[in-house]
Amino acid sequence: QVQLVESGGGSVQAGGSLRLSCEVSGSIYGYCLGWFRQAPGKEREGVATIYTNSGSTAYADSVKGRFTISQYNANKTVNLQLNSLKPEDTAMYYCAADRLRWSSCVSGTWTSDDFNSWGQGTQVTVSS
């Protein structure tokens, strides 16, 4: 069973940056690792994913060009760099993992139902 622990959230002003980290334990060969977010009163939405075997990535349109997902430490750490933050980026951010096909991982059309392993979340608050 894969376990995920997020860190790095916080409060910033619009235009600022944050880096979120997700420490992964367990075997993740052939896994898709992703970041999701959920704002109060809204559904959880996918932000970015990375396929561990190839490093292929995908992003939601709302964050393209501003957020970057990356993996290191033998793929045991997945970071999400958040730049040019906007107030609408305010949400609880969750790390997620599951054994998805490469095509599904990089489709950009994932939902929370596609992932079975989740972290506890880390809060990101962006003020205007």
Question: Outline of this structure?
Answer:
This protein is mostly beta strands and 128 residues long. The protein has one helix at residues 102-105; strands at residues 3-7, 10-13, 18-25, 32-38, 45-51, 57-59, 67-72, 77-82, 91-98, 117-118, 122-127.
Description:
The structure is a single chain. The protein is mainly beta and 128 residues long. 3% of the residues lie in helices and 48% in strands. It is built from 1 helix and 11 strands, in the order E-E-E-E-E-E-E-E-E-H-E-E. Strands 2, 4, 5, 6, 9, 10 and 11 form a 7-stranded mixed sheet that branches. Strands 1-3-8-7 form a 4-stranded antiparallel sheet, with no helix packed on it. Strand 7 and strand 8 form a beta hairpin. The radius of gyration is 13 Å and the shape is globular. The model has no long low-confidence stretch (mean pLDDT 95).
Strand and helix layout:
Elements: E1 3-7, E2 10-13, E3 18-25, E4 32-38, E5 45-51, E6 57-59, E7 67-72, E8 77-82, E9 91-98, H1 102-105, E10 117-118, E11 122-127
Parallel strand pairs: 2-11
Antiparallel strand pairs: 1-3, 3-8, 4-5, 4-9, 5-6, 7-8, 9-10, 9-11
